[in-house]
Every structure is written in structure tokens, then in C-alpha cells.
Write a structure and sequence with these properties.
This protein is of the alpha/beta class. It has a domain of about 180 residues: FAD/NAD(P)-binding domain. The chain is built from eleven helices and 21 strands. The strands form four sheets. Strands 1, 2, 8, 9, 10, 11, 19, 20 and 21 form a nine-stranded mixed sheet that branches. It has an eight-stranded mixed sheet with strand order 5-6-4-14-15-16-13-17, sandwiched between helices. Strands 3-7 form a two-stranded antiparallel sheet. Strand 19 and strand 20 form a beta hairpin. The chain is globular. Bound molecules: flavin-adenine dinucleotide. The site of flavin-adenine dinucleotide has 47 residues, from helix 2, strand 13, strand 17 and helix 10.
């Protein structure tokens, strides 16, 4: 059994329901491989429309990125501005994507409320900091284009950034009212509870090892001579996608990503650092993100090991960035560090893939999956229920040089960091 990483989240999350391994051969309307946000949200939305759903996971639900992330509920669905989305998808699908992207954070907080999910949810908004012209231009475009669509966004100068987050690191920034934070493993387990309450059946310790056809049905073969047969198939394995479906693995590059958490900060530090408890990230090419949890720990995340994307690496660099942002943190103790593998796509947009008739996959959130994977689950259910998904169902879009992904990632991270030109630390 794959153990959970020793993260802050796995130590403090609400208990998950019992999800016993699949026993023998079962049938359902829909079989879903992967019990993270994507798979569990799809299960929840399908089950509440009366579909019989079985979800299979190699480990326990939430074991993947869904139980390991920074817990930031990021707005917009992806990083591209609304007009960039329209440039890529055209007017019709672009506008539908933007409306869907706009609704992602609401969906998370509405589900938390509707199913009474205890996951330390707060919604103070999302702040992005920047220090160069490229970041300023991006934030102005984001603000202008979302404001034109009725969203409350504020552009901030360096002093306002200092007042809001307590760091002198940024010369400018923006505030987007839609974002917030959750305890990610509790949220994952809450979705599992909710899906089960709606009638879905979720199995841990049930690794899918093959997919076969039986007439027009799909049969997911599970290790140990077990299987689930269903009319519809969803593969929701994101950065942990293996060779279950030919070519699916090549549509994403899993990149190691790292999170570290301090000890709970004392009253003096908390009065100065992130007093508004916002979710914060940066406009740079190599993203860093941070926030406080409900006990007052600083949670900060960033790239993992860039020389070997199959390893998480150590936490030196995120600690170093934390003290550049907040020099007063130089003496705090770091209690936890862990990592996982989010998935990057070629276009940096999430993908709803039509694998074959009645077979779909939703994946590729480019590090923004708390809200978007939850929405993808809903979109997958819409594709199955009445072909009404707001995401265009697309073909497999593979990286041409997938075998050379390590080289590409190392290059992007090294050159990206250099181009970002992060300012040095200000003295404590
Ligand atoms: C360190 C880190 C920090 C992040 N921070 C943020 C953040 O702050 N905000 C944000 O929006 N996003 C963040 N992300 C990204 C976000 O967590 C993911 O995009 C999201 O959780 C993806 O959900 P998912 O359900 O698609 O995939 P996952 O949660 O990864 O689930 C995939 C599941 O598939 C299962 N699986 C794989 N193969 C098989 C098989 N053959 N049979 C059965 N099961 C299988 C795995 O066991 C796993 O449980 C972060 C990710 C990481 C790793």
C-alpha cells in the first residue's frame, strides 16, 4: 500500500470514510480511475444525478496531489488571461472556458458549504506579487480583462502590498477577490464523504492495471483478478498517469513540486506577516506561493528538484525564499516538508480528453488544480450526462519530445529563474 507522505496535511486532516478495496467483479454506469479532486468531484456530480459510480485508486483517496498541495484555491481556472484563452480557443469555446474558469472557486466553496466539509476553508481573496515589467503587464491585463467581466480585482502598489502581506519584496501586485485557502487533504476527504453520501462507491488499494472492451462496455482490470465493467470510463490520474491508456501519459509532464511548513508563528510575527490571511503567489515564471494555515504556520511551496523531476529534493530553496520575503522568519523552525507531482500540459491549459466513445480523461491543471480539478470533475459529469461540458472535448495532445522532458524542465526552470531576476533580501 502506498503510504501517505508525512505532511502537515496527512497529520492533521479529518478522517476519511472507509474505502475498502474492490472485491471481485462489479458493474456500474461509470468507472473512474483516480480518487483525487477530479475523480471524486466527477463521482459526486454523477452520483447525484442517479448514476451508479465506482471509483478506484491505487492508494487511499487523496493520496496524490489532492492531499499534498498548498491548499490555495486559485481563481480563473488557469494562468492565461481571458483574452489569451480566446486567442487559443476562439470566441465561442474561449468565452465558455472563461465563464467556467470564473466559477471554479465558487464551486469549491459551495461544495464545502453544501456538504459541510470541515477543511479550514477561508476566502479572504488571492494576492499576486510582482517585481518586474513582465509581471506588471500581466497583472494589468488580468485585472482589466476580468474587471470587464464583472470581477472585483484591485491593482496594488508596493506600499499596499507591504500593508496587506507584510513583505517589502514586491513593487506591485493585484488582489483578486475570488480566491481562498483550504486544508487540502481534509477537502479531498470531504469530497469522498460527499460522493459516498450521494451513492458513489469508492475503493482504495485497487490499482487499475488494464482496460478492455466487452461489447460497447469498458472493463477496468484491477490487480488481483478484480474488475469493474461500465458503459462510461473516466481516467483521472493527472500527474500520476501511467500506461493505462496509450498516449495519455505523453500529454502531460509531471513536475516535482515542494511545500514546507513552519512551526505555528508567535503573536508578534503573525501581526506582521500575512495579517489578512490571503493566498499569495507571484507573477514570475518559476512560481512560489504561500499562505498561513489556521494555526498560524507559514506554508510555502515552489519547484521541487529541477535536476531530477522524479525526486522531490530538499526544502532549502523554499526556506531561503521565505526569509527573503519575510526576514523575521530567519529563526523559525520548519516542522514539515513534502512534495508531489502536478501535471503540466503543452498549452498550459487543462484538458478534457475524449479517449474513445464514452471514455474521457480530465487532467493537466498546471499547478492550479484545487479549484480547476474540482470543476473538471463537474465538467466530466456534464460530458457524460448530456454532452454539455463547457470545456471542448479534445483529442490527445502529446508532447513531441516527451522522452526529453527532464531537459526541457531543467532549461525552463534555470532560464526562468534567471529571467525572473528575484530581488535580493531586504535586511531584517
Ligand atoms: C506540492 C504541490 C502543491 C500544489 N499546490 C497547489 C495549490 O496551492 N493550489 C492549486 O490549485 N493546486 C496546487 N497543486 C496542484 C493540485 O494539487 C493538483 O492539480 C490536483 O490535486 C490534481 O487533482 P487530481 O484529482 O487530478 O489528481 P491527484 O490528486 O494527483 O490524483 C490522482 C490519483 O490517481 C491515482 N492513480 C494513478 N494511477 C492509478 C491507477 N493505475 N489505478 C488507480 N489509481 C491510480 C493516484 O493514486 C492518485 O490518488 C499542487 C500540487 C503539488 C504536488
Amino acid at each position: 500500500m502506498n503510504e501517505l507522505p508525512p505532511s502537515l496535511w496527512s497529520k492533521t486532516a479529518i478522517a476519511g470514510p472507509d474505502c475498502p478495496p474492490l472485491a471481485g467483479h462489479e458493474a456500474a454506469d461509470v468507472v473512474i480511475v483516480g480518487a483525487g479532486y477530479t475523480g471524486c468531484s466527477a463521482a459526486l456530480h454523477l452520483a447525484r444525478e442517479g448514476k451508479e459510480v465506482r471509483v478506484l485508486d491505487t492508494a487511499e483517496p487523496g493520496w496524490g496531489c489532492s492531499g499534498r498541495n498548498g491548499g490555495q484555491v486559485n481563481p480563473g481556472g488557469q494562468r492565461a488571461t481571458p483574452e489569451e484563452v480566446i486567442d487559443v480557443l476562439g470566441d465561442d469555446w474561449g468565452n465558455r472556458f472563461n465563464q467556467m474558469g470564473h466559477a471554479t472557486c465558487d464551486l469549491v466553496f459551495d461544495l464545502i458549504k453544501a456538504y459541510d466539509i470541515e477543511c479550514e476553508a477561508v476566502r479572504p481573496g488571492y494576492i499576486q506579487g510582482g517585481w518586474n515589467q513582465q509581471g506588471l503587464k500581466y497583472q494589468q491585463e488580468w485585472a482589466d480583462q476580468w474587471r470587464a467581466r464583472g470581477v472585483e480585482i484591485e491593482l496594488l502598489n508596493g506600499q499596499q502590498m507591504m500593508d496587506l502581506i507584510g513583505s517589502e519584496h514586491y513593487s506591485h501586485g493585484m488582489y483578486d477577490s475570488r480566491g481562498g485557502n483550504v486544508q487540502p487533504m481534509s477537502y479531498a476527504r470531504g469530497l469522498v464523504h460527499a460522493a459516498i453520501a450521494e451513492g458513489a462507491v469508492i475503493h482504495g488499494r485497487s490499482p487499475a492495471i488494464g482496460i478492455e472492451k466487452d461489447g460497447s462496455d469498458w472493463v477496468v482490470v484491477v490487480e488481483g483478478a478484480r474488475s469493474v465493467k461500465a458503459k462510461y470510463l473516466i481516467i483521472a490520474t493527472n500527474g500520476y498517469t501511467g500506461d493505462l491508456w496509450p498516449g495519455l501519459k505523453q500529454t502531460v509532464v509531471p513536475v516535482s513540486s515542494f511545500v514546507a511548513a513552519t512551526q505555528p508563528l508567535g503573536h508578534n510575527l503573525l501581526s506582521a506577516i500575512l495579517p489578512g490571511k490571503h493566498a499569495v503567489s507571484e507573477s514570475g515564471r518559476v512560481i512560489v506561493y504561500y499562505r498561513l494555515d489556521h494555526k498560524g504556520r507559514l506554508i510555502i511551496g515552489g519547484r521541487g528538484n529541477f535536476l531530477n523531476i522524479n525526486q522531490i529534493g530538499d526544502n532549502t530553496h523554499v526556506r531561503e525564499i521565505a526569509t527573503r520575503l519575510f526576514p523575521a522568519l530567519s529563526d523559525v523552525k520548519w516542522d514539515y516538508h513534502w512534495g508531489g507531482w502536478p501535471a503540466i500540459t503543452k498549452t498550459h491549459m487543462p484538458m478534457l480528453v475524449g479517449l474513445a466513445p464514452n471514455a474521457f480523461s480530465g487532467l493537466g491543471y498546471n499547478g492550479r488544480g484545487v479549484a480547476m480539478a474540482t470543476m473538471m470533475g463537474k465538467q466530466l459529469s456534464m460530458a457524460i450526462l448530456d454532452d454539455s461540458a463547457d470545456l471542448r472535448v479534445q483529442l490527445l495532445d502529446k508532447f513531441t519530445f516527451h522522452g526529453m522532458r527532464q531537459l526541457g524542465i531543467t532549461y525552463r526552470l534555470v532560464v526562468g529563474s534567471w529571467l525572473d531576476g528575484r530581488p535580493p533580501a531586504k535586511s531584517a
